[in-house]
Each structure stands twice: as C-alpha cells, then as structure tokens.
Fold Protein MIS12 homolog.
Amino acid sequence: MANFNCVPSREEEYETQLYGFSCNDLLGKVEEDVQTHIRKSSNQMMKSMLKLSPNTDKQEVERAINAWVNECCLTVKNPMEKLKEQLAGFFSLPQHILAPKDKRQRESYSQKDEENLRETINEQKSRIRQAKFLQSLFENELTRISQEEQNVQLLEKVLGEVKFLEGVNADVEQFAKSSRKIHQAVLGLEVKEASLKLSDRPGCAESEETLEEAIYEAYKD
C-alpha cells in the first residue's frame, strides 16, 4: 500500500500537477483494489465451503482460506512490482521540466546567485559567533568591574575607619598633653604650698630653692 501521509517528492508534485494524481497514488489504488478483491473472494469461498459441507470443521476451513490468501499475495507480488516499474516509466518526467513557479525561481536566481547567497549566510553566521564571543567577554568584564567596585568600597570604608582612629588617637594625645600640663601646674602649686609650709618652720637650714626642688622630686611621680 502507498503511504499517503509522506511528504510528496518533486516527481510526485509534478505528476499530480500534470495528470491529477501521482504514480504512487495510482499504484496504491491498484494494490488496495487487489487486496479488497482477495478479501471478498476468501469470504465468499468460506461461505460456499461451509454451505456445501456443513459438517466440515470451521477452523479447518479458515486455515485453508488463510493459506489461499497468502498464496494469492505471493502470486500477485511480482506482477505488482512489474506494474510499478511500468507506471514509473509511464509517469516519468525529465529533470529539465519545471513547474511554472519553479521555473520562475530558476530564472530569478542563477547558480552564481545561490553561491553568493550561501557565502553571505556563512559570513553572517561567523559574525554572529564573533558577536556572541564579544558579548561573553563584555559580560565577564562587567562582572570583574563590579567586583572591583565592591573591593574599592570596602577599602574606602577601611580607610575611613583608619582616619577616624587616627583622629581619636590625636585627640587622646592632645588630651594627654593637656592632662600633663594640668598635672604639672597642679604639682607646681602643691610644691609652692609645701614650700611655704616648710619655710615657716623655725631652724630650717635649707634654702627655699633647694627645698622646692626636693618637694618637686617627691611629688612629680
């Protein structure tokens, strides 16, 4: 049986345009008619045999009929192949014959045009591959730049914290200097106060300057 669901070839399309049907269509119809005739004949033979011999086993009759059908199929196989060859020769169309739409296309596009078009397509494919490669490089570069920006932001944050700590250290040093000055001033006052107290004692043999130095040494730590 011919397959009517397959995509028709160029020959089948041209045969259909010229004759109204293709070689495969005609061959399929002939095969279908032959099989239908064999099937009807086998059914009629079975009915006739059972009618003439009612006592005959029906299964035996069916086996005999099936064997006859198989023989018939083998018998018509070679004639069908020959018929196929004859039909193919009868329906055969030369390659230079073109349908109107195909002829217009062949006249519009020469072999050189097809080669140029194929070359242009290959160039466009190459450009597309290059563009995809450049796009990949660009995306990788964007990712790297984004990571660098994050690193810069982190570094700026660290530098800001360092500057803040430097400012705190400067304030601490200034506070320490001020504290030392205040401590020295307070110490000086205490020395003078102690000097005055000692100078008031009778019989003090040390001079006032020597006494102040001694008191200062005692209080400075």
